[in-house]
């Protein structure tokens, strides 16, 4: 019985969010873009007061950096000494 209720709730959430999936995906992508801008802002010349704390995130974010700078309209990596293309 509990399993059926969980499935019903999941179905309801899917039906409600279906028309908004593209909006939700766009908002999540925009949040990711802002996070990347904050993360790499020091390297492109924008002061970042929390640079020291975001430094430890770089290894985890390098895999997605290429997609980010292409989405931002930069054909090549804006970072000197960092090649991803």
Report on the structure:
This protein is mostly helical. Helix content is 64%, strand content 0%. The protein has four helices and no strands. The chain has helices spanning 2-17, 21-40, 51-54, 58-71. The protein is elongated and about 60 Å long. The relative contact order is 0.10. The mean pLDDT is 80.
- Class from secondary-structure proportions: mainly alpha
Q: Could you list the spans in which at least 5 consecutive residues all have pLDDT below 50?
A: none
The total of beta strands comes to 0
What radius of gyration results from the CA coordinates?
19 Å
Strand residues, percent = under 5%
The largest pleated sheet is described as: none
Helix content: 55-70%
- Distinct helical segment count: 4
- Gross morphology is elongated
Overall pLDDT level: 80
The topology string of helices and strands comes to HHHH
Tell me the distance between the termini. 53 Å
């Amino acid at each position: 019985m509990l399993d059926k209720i969980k499935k019903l709730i999941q179905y309801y959430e899917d039906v409600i969010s279906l028309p908004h999936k593209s909006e939700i995906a766009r908002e999540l992508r925009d949040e990711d873009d802002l996070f990347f801008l904050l993360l790499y802002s020091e390297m492109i010349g924008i002061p970042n007061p929390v640079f020291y704390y975001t430094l430890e995130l770089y290894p985890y974010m390098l895999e997605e950096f290429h997609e980010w700078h292409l989405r931002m309209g930069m054909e090549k990596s804006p970072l000197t000494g960092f090649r991803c293309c």
